[in-house]
Structure to design on (152 residues):
């Protein structure tokens, strides 16, 4: 087995706006969840999540949701960080039908892999990371929360 370490870089919480549900397509149910705002906290990064990003979600017929998120964080000292990640959530075997009815679980565990990009020299080390995200969507609060770990 190859050796590796996980280092907690930051956590974030984002408020999600009302989804734009495209509906059932050949690939699954398509919905776009816009990011309204949020906060970044942690040992290596502090700041806010800016509006304008979102999750281009696909719910497959087997109930697995494919997440495709892009957004921007701004550090407390003004650096902009582009964040892009893909991953999965599991709505259960009947998740496709439940999503169509608007009957999704209150909390959905999420797992993803992320890349970060910035032009700011103070945070150039972010450009070298591959990250693992462990998170949860909270439908009642319209929030998503993630802990972000660098794989070393």
């Amino acid at each position: 087995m190859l050796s590796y370490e996980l280092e907690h870089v930051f956590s974030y919480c984002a408020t999600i706006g009302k989804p734009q549900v495209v509906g059932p397509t050949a690939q699954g149910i398509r919905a776009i969840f816009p990011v309204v705002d949020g906060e970044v906290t942690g040992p290596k990064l502090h700041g806010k999540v800016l509006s304008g990003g979102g999750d281009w979600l696909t719910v497959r017929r087997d109930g697995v949701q494919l997440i495709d998120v892009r957004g921007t964080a701004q550090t407390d000292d003004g650096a902009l960080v582009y964040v892009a990640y893909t991953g999965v959530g599991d709505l259960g075997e009947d998740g496709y039908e439940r999503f169509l009815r608007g009957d999704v679980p209150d909390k959905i565990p999420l797992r993803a892999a992320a890349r970060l990009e910035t032009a700011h020299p103070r945070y150039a080390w972010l450009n070298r990371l591959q990250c693992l995200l462990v998170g949860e969507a909270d439908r009642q609060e319209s929030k998503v929360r993630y802990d972000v770990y660098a794989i070393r």
Observations:
- The chain has a mean pLDDT of 97.
